[in-house]
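Late entry, written up from scratch paper. The run itself happened at the end of the previous shift, but nothing got recorded in the book at the time, so transcribing now.
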Amino acid sequence: MELGKIGVWTSYRAIGEENGGEAAKLVEELGYGTFWLGGSPRLSTVRPLLEATEHLVVATGIVNVWAYEPAQLAAEHAELARDFPDRLLVGIGIGHPEATGDYSKPLSAMRAFLDGLDAADSPLPRDRRCLAALAPKMLALSAERSHGAIPYFVPVAHTSYARSLLGAAPLLAPEVAFVLDENTDSARETAREYARLYLGLSNYANNLLRHGFTADDIAAGGSDRLIDAVTPHGSADEIAAVVRAHLDAGANHVALQAIGEPGIPRAGWTALAEAMTA
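Output as recorded:
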């Protein structure tokens, strides 16, 4: 399964589930390797994305362990994998304590979930799953029990750090949200509106504190320094430079999330596809 160096990350909340096939077809036509479907989707909802395309890999970002039984996820994967061989990667995550009432002992819960996938009637193979991981122990688990890690809302410094922990072989595929807007003030406003949710979640906030940011950077919607590091903005070439910095820091793949463009983000996806091949 070839993810390519660059993919796109979106959700049905952003583009409308009825537009999924159209969006996936555009992503494939633009030359991206992978379509990451965020928003804690049910695995069955990726079928229209696969049906609308010929070669595009579709990945989840992420299936939430608190919302699934492992055996059910493994069975759904087996059905899709039969119909679309080598085109489905299951991103799995533990979620956030602020968003999940059942949240407890995240590392133990993830290990138990992976055990369940391995014990299913049709096991979900290690190389067809990856883990949302930020902190050292979850990163290590992603290398041990899956294809690798898919960090979200991270600066380049985290990519370098994650690669040093993972070693050379595992997948490292950070998500990078961007704002295609050369007006710095309005771009930062858009980025800050997007970032506000994540800065209020302890997993993301604590991760930023481990990588050079302070409580003052995280407060009040995020300092300019933090916003610029986590959510690049400006011209397509300026954003592409940050994407290349993640690749240079050790990422195998970068999943680009266009924000600030309603519906299918045709302009953002097209501009970045062109900038990354220039």
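The chain has one domain: 6-277.
(Scratch paper discarded after transcription.)
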